[in-house]
Amino acid sequence: MLDLFNKEPIYLNLPDAEFIYYPNFFSKENADLFLETLSKEIAWQQDDITIFGKKIAQPRLTALYGNEGKSYGYSNIVMHPHPLNTTLTFIKDAVENTINEHFTTILLNLYRNEKDSNGWHADNEKELGRDPIIASVSFGEARMFQIKHHTKKEFKQSLLLEHGSLLVMRNGAQLHYKHQIPKATKPKNPRINLTFRKII
Question: Whole-structure pTM over 0.70, yes or no?
Answer without folding.
Answer: yes
